[in-house]
Design brief:
Elements lengths: L25 H6 L5 H9 L16 E10 L2 E6 L3 H9 L2 E4 L3 E10 L4 E12 L2 E13 L6 E4 L3 E2 L8 E10 L5 E12 L4
Parallel strand pairs: 3-10
Antiparallel strand pairs: 1-2, 1-4, 4-7, 4-8, 5-6, 5-9, 9-10
């Protein structure tokens, strides 16, 4: 009997019957169908022919740089590039005005190998009760020196006196192989205004 995850766990939804294909390294991908010009062009678009690690001494395949909150002109860039940056983020709640439309964007670097099926998961709780859960597929990415990013669909912050207060947010960046590249908890405060 397999144990099913509870609603409080931050795990990606899996499609029944879907099987993850065998993982291939960059060298193997570069040599596949080497005589096919259209595949060579596609592989070049993934950066396979000139993949240079941005952080060569860092063995992680995905290095998450920031989670960016944007609502109109208000942009809040949450640095998650190091354990120290995450610790600082955890000490300072992110203040969001009630009722605003907003979106999140995640900035990251892929290095060393192709990563398939990147997903961003996020669960927001208030007083220990889950009020929102987000699961967004980001896609597959080849190694690239520059930051890559994914912007998620718009949401609306809760509003009203009962919605104001402190929320605990758990965020996770994971791939199809269940490799967790970053998982962190932070706090958001819904207030009547931005300050």
């Amino acid at each position: 009997m397999s144990q099913q995850p509870t609603a409080d766990e931050l795990v990606p939804t899996r499609t029944e019957g879907y099987k993850i294909s065998e993982k291939k390294g960059i060298d193997e991908l570069q040599n596949l169908d080497a005589d096919d010009p259209s595949l060579a062009k596609w592989k070049d678009s993934l950066g396979l022919s000139h993949a240079k690690a941005r952080f060569p001494n860092d063995k992680r395949m995905v290095v998450v740089q920031a989670l960016v909150f944007q609502s109109g002109e208000h942009v809040i860039r949450m640095d998650v590039s190091s354990p120290e940056a995450i610790a600082k983020l955890q000490k300072t709640p992110v203040v969001i005005k009630e009722g605003v439309d907003y979106t999140f964007k995640i900035e990251f670097v892929v290095q060393h190998e192709v990563v398939s099926g990147l997903q961003f998961l996020q669960q927001i709780k208030r007083l220990g009760v889950s009020v929102e859960k987000m699961e967004e597929m980001c896609g597959s990415y080849g190694p690239k020196y520059e930051n890559q990013e994914k912007t998620f669909p718009h949401s609306k912050a809760p509003s009203g006196m009962m919605a104001r207060g402190t929320y605990t947010v758990k965020s996770k960046f994971i791939d199809d192989d269940n490799n967790v590249y970053l998982e962190w908890t932070w706090t958001m405060e819904i207030k009547k205004d931005w300050a």
